Amino acid sequence: MRGVYTATFKISGLNAQKTLMYLTAPAAKVVEIIAATVTNESNVTNQQFEIQIANITTLGTPTATAVTPTPHEAGDQAAGSTVKANVTASEPTYGSALTQEGAASLPGYRFEPQPDERIYVAPAASVGIRSLSEEEAEHLRVHPAPIWSVREFRRLRGEWKSILDALTDDVFITFDLDGLDPACLPGTGTPEPGGLEWYEASDLIGAVAANKRIVGFDVVELAPVPGNVASDFLAARMTYRMIGHMLRSQG
Predict the structure, then answer these.
(1) pLDDT (0 to 100) of residue 211
(2) What structural domains and CATH numbers belong to the chain?
């Protein structure tokens, strides 16, 4: 699916910090943000506002209005992304800002980067999930996503095509150490029982490296336990192994 689409929405009475618009990428597709504009058409007094574009870490179930993106070319198929605007309740949780800038309200704000500086919204696949909030479970029921619990992962018995098919050709891996069972790694902020074992996690990453191009990775959520270096050692070993897998995937 290729094409250029525009999503617009008019909000009345904006007087506090809120999510103006968010989008989610379709499975196995990458969305490129070419430009973003915020204007204030009714304000005759020049005021200052601050605009931020950021990744959502936890979407939850925001109360928002669905927006249908308009294709630029006649005959293009409907956009695959889900776009919603004007969140009025249950704001998503955001990570660090991708761009943040103040602007005067009369001339407005326009984000129009050079092609090599554009923001990309990529789909994500998660393996090793074993605990969800009620809101997250409800959102997944309405909006299914490529997520495999530990039990679902083990039922695949090493046939991981469905996981690999959910990924784009270029992959960034975030290895959350609390995905491992606390018997393997107790030193993490959320030592949830029933996690992945070392070889399960390592073999899956090896399969990703053999079939995709790993462009980067991080290893997160280590919480060292004083007097017990096992978690520290495992985290260092996983980082070392990830470096090898990434280089292998890049030829």
Answers:
(1) 95
(2) 5-121 (no CATH), 126-249 (3.40.800.10)
